[in-house]
TrEMBL record:
It comes from the Bacteria. PROSITE patterns: FERRITIN_LIKE. This is Rubrerythrin. One of its GO terms (molecular function) is oxidoreductase activity. Residues 46-203 form the Ferritin-like diiron domain. Keywords: Membrane, Transmembrane, Transmembrane helix. It comes from Waterburya agarophytonicola KI4. The keyword Nucleus does not apply. InterPro entries: Ferritin-like, Ferritin-like_diiron, Ferritin-like_SF, Rbr2/Nigerythrin, Rr_diiron-bd_dom.
Amino acid sequence: MTEDSEFDSIVQKVEIWTVITSLVILFLVYFSRSRPPKVQAEDSLKGKASPTLDNLQEAYNSEANSHVMYLNFAEKAREEGYKDLALLFKTLAGAEKIHLDNHARVIKAMGAAPEKIMIVPQVASTVDQEVETTDNLSTLVQHDLNNSVNGESDERQMYAQFIKQAKLDNNSAALETFETALVAEHKHSQILGQVKGNLDDWKLADHQLYVCQLTGEIFDSHPGLEACSPK
């Protein structure tokens, strides 16, 4: 083989590899543009005011107040002898804490700081009552239960609206935390509805409740927790 032929062979190989390299680069550029990573999509929302960020702040504030409200309800139920109802309220407080922590993470990821305005919860008490009878206590506890049911209903409506806006804003992280909270709030309402019709059953400490640490869902059996495992 002459020097010229060897040179031509080398040039041909270089040209082939150049073409292959160019094709690989074009493929990678196309792939990255056609399927942007979720992290990049969320990064584009950082530091930008948006309706969804406002909704996240409102949801965070709502859950923070619900958390405190349920803690107060739990203490009052315990004082009035409703041991399992106190357990339920305390469990609900823990569930709402999971929600507000989830919201806070998304707010921070968007470059903002979580904000809340705490409102002193109105807790039914026997202190101002002249006669403390079993019926009176039941009425007062029902008052707290009604507040709980109304609060859960308000949050369900709130999240339904926030989910629509998160979709419009293409904010997948906010959408996930809103949808997760909405599913849990449905379960909370179901449990509270059951309690309202069987208040006496919640005096004795014989109920067991389990909380999904990811979603804040509450289950009355341990196997139910399997439903909250990461998908």
